Amino acid sequence: MSAFLTVFACVLLLAVLLSSLAHRTILSTAALFLVAGFMLGDGVLGVVSISAADEAVGMLAELALFAVLFTDGMRLGWAELRSAWRLPGRALGWGLPLTLVITALGAHYLIGLGWIESLLIGAILAPTDPVFAAALVGNEKVPPRLRQLLNVESGINDGLALPFVMVFLAVAAGSADLHLGELGLELGLGVLIGVAVPWAAIKLEQTRWFSASTQYEPLNALAIGLLVLALGKATHGNLFLAAFAAGITVATFGRRQRESFEHFGELIAELFKLAALLVFGALITPALLGAVGWRGWLFAVLALVLARPVAIWISFLGSGLSVREQAAVAWFGPKGFASVVYGLIVLGSGIAAADEVFQLVAVTIVLSILLHSSTDIVVARWFDDEREVPAWYGAAGRVRARLRGKEPDGDGSP
């Protein structure tokens, strides 16, 4: 553990020092942690020795996903969802299940996995991660509806994919171990805790007897999250649905709590994300990358360039989005943190196909992180009409730029 903490601290410091450069270029902080984990893990240098069976791995995955789902849910109150539902609704209502099914078809027919394991892989790889589309979402020259679509979709689909992952994982564990009533109770209890605890805490603070000081306001939502986590653990309610429901509840009923916690919560979630990516990278070895064979790598490529693009194309027929906007949405279906943690959960589940599922998920995520994190700025520039006209562009280009008001005339006026 001391070796892991030392490595994490060093890589984190390096990531902080390079963060400004990464924001302007194709460098990716997430890719840095993934590559660092791979290089320092048992498969290469052996500095960090981590096994999927280690209790710390499961605990980190659990806490990381809880933190991320809590902060994701907090970005999306019901008011925001109602006002911006038309396009994200297509991506979530049609795009997510279609991506799941198309990915599952590839795993079944190309790899030869059983249907339940294939559907499990589809559910793990269906969510998208906004981190790898940061340059697109944060670029004001990109149409607002496109930025909103990607932001809302990636903020919600982690939580929507979770029940599918849990159900398919329970079925894959064997019919003897599957009790649908217990599973339904676990999921329902998680949602109940996630709604009731934040609502009661916020209403309590709104009474005349209680009020949080400015100094302690950021800790309000943190306390709510910790209480949801503790009650979920004690009652065996589903922690992840509880976290997502709690975040949405805080965003809906506690505007002040949401605003005070926003920056603090994102930093906490980011730390957990990076730590989980380091662990994930350490579990990926050269032997694992080679064990999937050409079919595994072909599956990973098709999962990125076929499954989501086809699903998005079908989902957005008649939506009014331009071809360029649809292409951007179709390409930016990056597999990121949620898929990493779902993969770690499956690896530690003990199901018969755990290793094979994890291997396929791992190579797809690795490929996605490398491709999507290095192309977000490139795709964002498709929408950048404000760029300088290069010298080699010629007189015609300069005339067009002048007519658009982008280049000054000889007297210095636009």
Describe the model.
- InterPro entries: Cation/H_exchanger_TM (IPR006153), Na+/solute_symporter_sf (IPR038770).
- Keywords: Antiport, Cell membrane, Ion transport, Membrane, Transmembrane, Transmembrane helix, Transport.
- Residues 14-375 form the Cation/H+ exchanger transmembrane domain.
- It is a multi-pass membrane protein.
- The chain has one domain (2-383): Up-down Bundle (Na+/H+ antiporter like fold), CATH 1.20.1530.20.
- Helix content is 73%, strand content 0%.
- It has helices at residues 2-24, 29-40, 55-74, 78-83, 86-111, 115-125, 134-137, 144-172, 180-205, 217-235, 239-253, 255-283, 286-291, 293-315, 323-331, 337-347, 354-372, 376-380, 395-403.
- The radius of gyration is 23 Å and the shape is globular.
- Residues 386-404 and 406-414 have low confidence and may be disordered.
